[in-house]
Amino acid sequence: MNRVMSDLASVRKRFTSLQGDFTFFDAPGGSQVPDEVGDAMARCLREASANLGAPYETSLRVKAILESAEAKAARFLGCEPHEIVFGTNMTSLDFSLSRTAGRGFQAGDEILVSSLDHDGGVAPWLELAHDKDLVVKHVELNDDTTLDMDDLQSKLSDRTRVVASAWASNAIGTIVDARRVCELAHSVGALAWIDAVHYAAHEPIDVRAIDADVLICSPYKFCGPHLGIAYGRAGVLESWRPYKARPAATSPVGRSFETGTQPYELLAGLNATFDYLADIGGFDAIVPYERELGERFVSSLPDSVKIYGLPGMEGRVPTFLVNVDGVPAGQVASHLADKKIGVWAHDSWYSLNLYERFGYGSDGAVRIGFIHYNTAEEVDRLVAELGNAATP
Length: 392
Hints:
Blueprint: H1 3-6, H2 8-12, E1 23-24, H3 35-47, H4 57-77, E2 84-87, H5 90-101, E3 110-114, H6 123-132, E4 135-139, H7 149-155, E5 160-166, H8 178-187, E6 191-195, H9 207-210, E7 214-217, E8 228-232, H10 234-239, H11 264-279, H12 282-300, E9 305-307, E10 319-324, H13 329-338, E11 341-342, E12 344-346, H14 352-358, E13 365-369, H15 376-389
Parallel strand pairs: 1-11, 3-4, 3-5, 5-6, 6-7
Antiparallel strand pairs: 2-8, 7-8, 9-10, 10-13, 12-13
Helix pairs in contact: 3-11, 4-11, 5-6, 12-15, 13-15
């Protein structure tokens, strides 16, 4: 039996937030956090309140926390520790690194972004384009919401400098063939820039396998603290001139792109997050279990509930955008909250081009996301209450 499923009660006991009678299906907006992560953060503040470079014990503890975080993040992403860059969040890292990459871009240079993308992966390029007179083009979608690779290929040119794409949609869960995106980017000498924020919570990552130049994710999606983690190919990072305070470290190369003092207590929590994921069996256990939850949900939905995008679990992570016939999304979310089930209602979900495509309208849509600590019984209760929401 799957390790997560067979020991799910023990997994859930590690979360104080899961001990009540409220059910969380809002992981796409931020997962719950196991107690050991908070404990590690508190222990750092008690025992390692210092900064790098001093010869005394608390500074040495901070150094160990940072080096451990780099090593564990590198294993998580499939790269080397010196290729890791930490930041406040994905969006801040994207703004910072896109500005760094764009130092040498010229007016008329082109950047391609995906129509599935969260605006955190689009706005940095739009702002850079505004300042440097660049051209940003959106890659279109197929009718089933998968990325149109033919359209991507047709928009490539000798002026393309970056191809930026989400690996999975934060709104509708559709997965992109990131390896193919990177291959096409490299065919014209462009950087392959992957937003893995939503993907990283549900599937294993190997940046070498997809051949990305830059990849960014956020631990708050996979039971960790609010941080941004970026991978940058060493040769790419070494070719950039970072925005940094002049005396700050330039070695290892990834640290050159970290501005100011790092939040060591959050990095301590990040270390505990990676330990937790490994302890429950990692993605070998997580992926099949989450897929079972998604399949259970899809197969039992009443006709009154519409799913946007792909109809089943093939080609997606367990994130679903839905509407209940005749019921505004906000009303559905409020009904579920009254039944102690947590979901959100929103209009665009920050995926502005996707929003324009579907046109949820003023009523918005409800986003539902499953993660490994959810149970089959919770999914069944959710389905029942979605059906009840449609009842006059």
